[in-house]
Amino acid sequence: MSRRVYLDHNASTPVHPEVLAEMLPYFSERFGNPSSIHAFGREAREGLDGARERVAGYLRVSAPEIVFTSGGTESDNLAVKGLAWARGRGHLITSRIEHHAVLRACQALEGHGFDVTYVGVDEHGMVDPDEVRRAIRPDTIAVSVMHANSEIGTIQPIGEIGRLTRERGIPFHVDAVQTLGKIPFDVGALGIDVLSFSAHKIYGPKGVAGLYVRKGTKMVAVQHGGEHERRRRAGTENVAGIVGLGKAVEVRARDMAAEAGRLAALRDRLVDGLRKGVPEVRLSGHPVQRLPGTASLLFRHVESESLVLGLDLKGIAVSAGSACTSGNVEPSHVLVAMGVPLDWAMGAVRCSLGRSTTAGDIDYVVECAEPLVRKLRAALPVGAA
Ligand SMILES: Cc1ncc(COP(=O)(O)O)c(C=O)c1O
Predict the structure, then answer these.
(1) Mean pLDDT for each consecutive 10-residue tract of the chain (385 residues)?
(2) How much distance in Å is there from the Cα of 178 to the middle of ligand 1?
(3) Is residue 368 within 8 Å of residue 311, measured between CB atoms?
(4) Which domains does the chain possess?
């Protein structure tokens, strides 16, 4: 088979073999409903409780503060809407570079009479805590800022923002879908009240995620039904998936530190290699405060989708920073918020490395990218460059 290189780990990751092994019995012999009181139910409940303990232990919080959901998107919606609806009306603060799960949830709340301030970012994609402070009003009921951005990898000053919200008693939600299990952090010390995370970004299965909700935080359910998850989220739990999430967190706790150094070195090898071989390419995001395995590269005067498709033909999987919406190619909202000029923003390609990435993979990507970029630039209409 021809060579395949997967550099899209921020989109999703393969399930770790140790995670899969723990999940499998919950599809067959331990299939019971965890709400049932008979032995079958109790076996499933054990799996659920064990996973909750594992996640809580990793975050150094208590098990009842963990709520399992169907994905990072649901966790973000539950956090933002649940915090807002618990208060009924008021003002929220978020950033312009959040994942759409937060941005669109905030827009939906605006449709219901809530006010939202979308704070900007600097050229590195960094939120200024001072701008958050200035945006706070007497009726501010929640602040939601992501921990690290999935496209550019910039890590936000969560501790400083958490200090502001804590001082004022405003609930603080952090989308940590791209950081939990990738970089170490202390939920308590950062002043976080609600935290979203998702299994499939950390070698767990898709369609399962969680939320940490600090004890005493007023947050109502978005999905109603039974008494599951302490009435924070109704619906029979995805037991096998949740067991997988618990194991994935445990594996990350064990492997994360060693992997972070290796990934940062490979990321630098990729960036240096491309910079040497390809004219007019630059790295976006913060030069230092960034995720170890994420490199968002801007290729000037190239259409990112053409580059992604060209690399795909070589067996390389990366993702485009622009999105095709109703026939028009739009630059990413993150790069627009950072003020990246259009001739650079349209050529944004994100490479996100993971546990299987090797130096050989990186060298292969560099080798394939150089002639491809040259070809794409040569094909541009005269005067476009
Ligand atoms: C920062 C961030 N938040 C939320 C999500 C949504 O997570 P899920 O795919 O589990 O719905 C993602 C996924 O890309 C993400 O990167």
Answers:
(1) 92 98 98 98 98 98 98 98 98 98 98 98 98 98 98 98 98 98 97 98 98 98 96 97 98 96 97 96 96 97 96 97 67 96 96 98 97 93 59
(2) 8
(3) yes
(4) 5-12+256-378 (3.90.1150.10), 17-251 (3.40.640.10)
